[in-house]
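Key idea: predict the complex, not the pieces.
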Amino acid sequence: MTTVPDHVDRRFRDQAAAACMLDVAYDFADSPIGTLLVAASERGVCRISFDPEPERELAALAKAFGVRVLRSPGPVEGVRRELDEYFEGSRKEFDLRVDLTPLPDFQRAVLEELVRVPFGHVDTYGALALRIGKPRAARAVGGALNRNPIPIVVPCHRIVGASGSLVGYAGGLERKQALLGLEGALLPG
Amino acid sequence: MEAVAAIPPFERFYAERKDEVFGYLARLLGRQAAEDAFQETFLRALRAYGKLEHGRHLRAWVFTIATRVAVDERRRTTPVGEPTEVPVHDERPAFAELEHLADRLPPTERAAVVLRYGYDLSYDDIGAALGSSAEAARAAASSGVRRLRRKETS
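Result:
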């Protein structure tokens, strides 16, 4: 059977993105904490996924942003580069737009506040709840972080328990530890 | 029920169809011209994809687009003279034996023949692909086959 030549396939993927015809473009990126799926809408980064299962990811992206989801490296090149720099230790702040539009208001408020926690610092669920004006919502904040669609860039790894324990991480506690270690923010004990 | 008709993410649809669409275009136009026609086909598909109401018949749909692109391309580059009357044969053709001759057919006949015998599309789908009816598709395919048989024996 004839297969489409690589350069023709690549040209289509590039042109589709260049013509702004995609709801979401995505690609995979290697990192010290495993392969990541990185996706962007026209408004910004909309997904970073650990241990991606493409079938499920694509269906979720199509549901949230529209069915025109295509693997196309161009639109996520900048994200991949900044992630590389972050993992090499040469970047402390991401200079990326993020797209949180499909999220419920509460979760969006949590994540927008979270972005202000700087590299190398940690904060607690309770403090974050306080800062969005819902001092008693620490547990709900935990839930919102657990479903963070854009980990690393939206740094939910920087939120820990009041006792200093790591508590949880959707990507696994080892990754949370690795990210905090990379940022020099590992807690004693 | 809903799952059957759900529109898959474009990547799924594209990954599933790109090779056979490229193969089809290469059969109609040759590999070189197929490269541009491929871009055009999937860009058109992508443009319309967000407005689809269900995910049924996606294969026939993309063949429709490819056919229109290829027919336009051939009309543009290789004008074909008026079809001449040819004698009628009723036997099913051995398509593989005839295909090497098919590039001498008028574009719609060629598309009809290749879609029918190369890709096993129904005449309903071929009619849609050619912007006509199932009857017209059947007529185009059989006329194409007659012409091929004549070429083979001439």
